[in-house]
Queue: 2 jobs
Job 1
Amino acid sequence: MTPIATYRLQIQPEYPFSAAADAVPALASLGVSHLHLSPVLEAVPGSTHGYDVTDHSRIREELGGEAGLRALAATARAHGLGLVLDLVPNHMAASPVHNHALRSVLRDGPDSPYARWFDIDWAAGGGRLLLPVLGAPVGEELAGMRVADGVLHAGGQHFPLRPGTEELPLPALLDAQHYRLAWWRLARTELNYRRFFTISDLIGVRVEDPEVFAATHAKILELVRDGVVQGLRIDHPDGLAEPEAYLRELKRTAGGDCWIVVEKILTGEEPLPSSWPVAGTTGYDALRRIDGVFVDPVGAEELTGHYRRFAAPAPDEGGDWGPTARRAAYEVVERELAAEVAFLTRTAALVCAADPARRDHAPWALERAVRELLVRVPVYRPYGPGAEDVLTERAAEEAKTAFTVPEEAAAVDTVRELALGRLGAGPAQAAFLTRFAQTSSALRAKSVEDKAFYRYTPLISANEVGGEPGEPAVSPEAFHAYCARLDRDWPATGTVLSTHDTKRSADVRARIAVLSECPQRWAKLLDDVGQAPSPDPQTAWSAWQTALGLGAPYTDRLAPAVLKAVREAALRTTWTEADPAYEQAVLDFVEVGPGGPPLYTVSLLARELDPYVRANTLGAALLHLTMPGVPDLYQGTEREYLALVDPDNRRPYAPGPDDEKTALTRAALRLRRELPEVFGRPGTYTPLAASGPAAGHCLAYSRGTGGRAETVTAVTRLSLRLAEGGGWAGTALVLPEGRWYDAVDGGREFTGGAGAPVDLAELFAARPVALLRRHPDA
């Protein structure tokens, strides 16, 4: 069953199933059809997110257990709501204390019945699994290690012992285990298990194995069969060995009525593979198009010029998007993903050793070829027949320029053939093909989302997952083309504006996006607040934009977000190689600058921009709620919701007072409920074009079936530029034939047809957006 709209709740120990049940009546009255819950399987105690699963067979007791989940489902069902669950198939917590499957592997090694659950390269570890969990080199930790109660206590943790080793002297006991305890820094180069991105605390799971799939999905599928759950959000499918095969098995076992969407990040105009048996994506592709409509391309370019003069970053350290992204990719592939590159190099060498024509490739040449091709993958992951269009011959030729000896550059061709799966059907070829794709997605995520997005910051509202910071603006024509594709191919896909992973909520981004319409005012603001000492101008630029977006002196929320930004950017400090003096300077700057008295100056600009922020906020919300797809509302976003990067955006849900945005949301969701054939089927989207001098400031479309429009959406875009240009004078919109009324308050009526164009000043008299419904008598 396709949802009408979903409402995401971050379930956590501070907000368990019982709290969600209390919110059900209010959420049902809002108009959504399903609650969308963050992961609910057993996780590391205290986890606020649930992506660190420890036991797939149990619903998390800290949340209320299975009884609590079933009770929530019953309450939701009584109010007409279903449940959608966030499912995490790719990884689980690498915690031997809490993960019984991993604990078994540590105790029994390759003979454990759970050894097949994980991608462990036993040969690379000398027959042992590297556990990089110690806070210092093992020699410094030895004195604190001890054996008690049949387990090894080390570094504040405890580990199972290989049977028969309990009485050995400590050094011999350590060497006799199926695992090797090690300093956490060794993970970068010596890790021999697949993990989630670069997070060694999350170990990859081999759900491509039928037995592993069955064991890790039994509980969720039971809930689906029992009618407790009606939909699934699949986290990070790019990490799986065979995403399409996995999704086919999931669809088969979950049944055809289960609505399934995937967290697949699409780059540019990259399409979702049409063969995937899903309803669509979780919606980051929609987020980029909606946000882009409210960015002025001319002003964004001018703003970038101000940024380069103010911050003066080097081209590859934030000055230019392309060089910045490429440098970040090299840094990640050479450092954070060194262990993954080493695996690919060893595997490539195995294939070459069996082929006389390729036997003489030097290991270092294969390693460089792997790195050079990985950084040139322009999307998260190459897929199937289309992989050749991603791993192009041109990319291979460019990769060869990194070699000084042409003969050694031939390794690039071998690696490309391996990455395309063309060198036979042996296990080494299969392993390379899979791991190259998995590593590609990890590289893209860590280098673009978690590094380059924090370095290139002219307009930080554009730096969201799936975004294009170098080209932040989206024209109405491009938006319509995108919606037409969804309407035709993926009418039940998910769409989002804010999520638990967005760096800034939609309303924060809407505030910042207005700067693309007034770059000169922003430059003046920076001159006015320039007396606040900053550790470097790049940080100051993004911190002031963040303060404008947040809109209030929440220093306790602003400071952690700015500190996280400089650590992610990794130009002057990092998570693992921190510069305490620099970080303190950042915190001091936030306290006396964006979080201190100068915020008054920021608030003056914010008040000037409020009318245009309102247009952006309401416009984005209405597009999200009425465009093709199933809108997912993040907790609290039916009203003004100002949040920064996690953990700020993962605070327990707390309802607030209704506002103008709430009224618009209720009206749009009411239409979706009352007109399911209009919003739930393909072929219902029709662009509408305004005429007159300000036509480019209106984006409008109708939704309907059988050639009969039933609703009209119209929003104001670039409203500050519109005001500066004289407003809507002489600009009109021809509505579809018939009589129309305001679906928000019902107070106004309009007549459609070519002979009666509606003046846009009249259409937008009440608010900068319009949601119309055909009069029942028309």
Note: The mean pLDDT is 96.
Job 2
Amino acid sequence: MLEASPLTEGWILRHEGAALPARVPGCVHTDLLAAGVIEDPFLGRNETGVAWVGRREWTYETDLPAVSAAERHEQTDLVFEGLDTVAEILLDGRPVGRTRNMHRSYRFDVTGMTGRLSVRFGSAYAEAEAVRGRLGERPSAYPEPYAYVRKMACSFGWDWGPTLVTAGIWRPARLEHWSTARIARVRPLVTVEDGVGRVELAVEVERSRVEAPLTLEATVGGVRARAQVDGTRATVRLDVPDVDLWWPRGYGEQPLYDVELTLLHGEASVSAPGRGEAGTLDAWRRRIGFRTVELDRRPDAHGTGFTFVVNGERLFARGVNWIPDDVFPSRVSRVRYRERLRQAADAGVDLVRVWGGGIYESEDFYDACDELGLLVWQDFPFACAAYPEEQPLRGEVEAEARENVVRLMPHPSLVLWNGNNENLWGFRDWDWERRLAGESWGEGYYLGLLPRVVAESDPTRPYTAGSPWSGSWDRHPNDPAHGTHHSWEVWNQVDYADYRLHVPRFVAEFGWQAPPAYATLRRALAGEELAPGSPGMLHHQKAEDGNGKLERGLVRHFALPEGDFDRWHYLTQVNQARAVAAGIEHWRSSWPVCAGTVVWQLNDCWPVTSWAAIDGDGREKPLYHELRRLYADRLLTLRAQDNGLVLAAVNQSADGWSGTVVLRRMSVEGAVLARAGLDVSAGRRSVALLPVPGELEPVGPEEYLVADVDGLRALHFPAADREIPYPRPEFEVALVPGGITVTAHTLVRDLLLQADRLAPRARADRGLVTLLPGETVTIGVRGWEARGERDAAAARSALYCVEPGR
């Protein structure tokens, strides 16, 4: 039987003649940080002080262990699941192999070899600049040369991320000892029809003795099958009756089936129930789920659709974009993946797009998505640049694509392969075509190589050439009427109300910025007086004119809080939540024309002002809690249209929704000016639209409309907050077990408890809430023990709301 020996202990990192302790998996920055050589680059402006790390060459060393298993086997392989990025591997100074791709694994035959193992990493900058020198300059959204090396692009910096160009053994390393043969690759095709699940395991084996007879045996769901190996290939087929279907969260359960494949040595009979004289050589184990997935891209009266269909059920995708959760990905543990993805699921998310400037994530990520029912849209790692298609890059791209497509195939959560992020759009709109003057830029990958790899290896899943992509060069790549659309003109140029002007078929990116939680800022910028334009705040704002866009977005709705950082911090977070709500409410209520929204973005990779709903320290912004409302199965919203207000009841649940909506036209002083009930009925997975009677529409900035049904509420204020004569908010705060209650005596709009101001570990269970006079809300708080009047006063000081004239 194959035996594996992890290579995790005894590593050192060579630095300035010293041997520093090193962790594997890990990277240079984390090892230097642990050794006290560099300051934490996430704090203050330390990032700039460690830029030299990415320009250096680095060497990791350890001794190959004298493992007795090597004596029992014919071959020993040195296996690296991930090397970042350009490396030479040596044993006692003898070359073993070279690498130039972070997105691949590597295997080297080291049979009979012992001694000092060295992994020498060259600078990714040096590699990228050398390739650029050979192949010529290509345009890019950022000045760093990330398009010339197969490495996580955002380690070179992004408009939300630091420039920390890593190197190191970033995924596990091990020795594998084996004899006769081993399982080299398993390509599982999982399909289901009429309740019968079929698993076809296309297997490749590597042999040390070609003449040995080999048998494969597989089991799944109580079904067993065998196949003889013909040379180095075989296919094992299993039909599993009456399988339970895997569903995305909110649509059903997520049953998973264990698949075990065993490679046997001997003349075992395929029909025999036992193993006879066969001996076990190797085994492969995974979990799978049975489900069907289609992408409906048929043309219709509105253009060209982009609708996910799982098990025959058409979905409005409630999505978020995912970036690497740490700029040093080796630090993201299984527990951390689970925590972050659980946060997404708890917010009502059912689709996570793994964005193309990052990585193919670890098995821990996809395992969690399988279990939580989160659909995964997987970008190939290309983003915001023209990528050369010549060697040495082309061969690396094909190798990484073939490996990762097969690696991720078992996961039922994976439902889409996407060729790139914004590169087709960039070619058309960002002056790339003129600047390229006929040079290669990646089109051959997205429209040729990658769809061919997916079709050959994983025909059960759809592929799309890019995001955004209208499906044809006959149309603009970002045409909202066709395929996927990225809506960035709103954040960059106009007010978020403009989200309501269009109904794209599928909104794959849109978003609005806000700073992270207060405690996150205090930790990252300790000792600095916080201000929107302070040195640390500006350093942790990577977007071009980011603060300018925040300010321009703010003054359309509020008076700019000059000199009041706490007020600025609160209002920018309110504006972020309202902006995203404006888009999602409009687009969800436009189902089935619009079939999904993917918010930019769920998470951050360090403490930064960004579009994220969860900041770099894992704290939820108000946007996160707003997503829980926006992505709930049932959503109530009020839409202003040319012919008046419309009430939309969005029902994404499996059951019909009927009820009476109570509408109240109210004054900001608390008087009910008009009242009516509207009967609403929305079938399963549908939207009901009802016109609001004219006498209930607010008149002027002193009035607003409230709609309530089944515990859900929608509000419509016809004027910007700075024009509304709000009363001075009055409310009472009381401590209760596990949190606080707030009772309003006036209209209290967008009340927010910033729990992290009470204690850095404290978390509130809700975000923004608007209270009418006489209403009470209970806010649960974890990580904070309230004991008396002083704590009640502290809780009150951590409460913010919209105030008159501010």
Note: DSSP finds 17 helices and 44 strands in the chain.
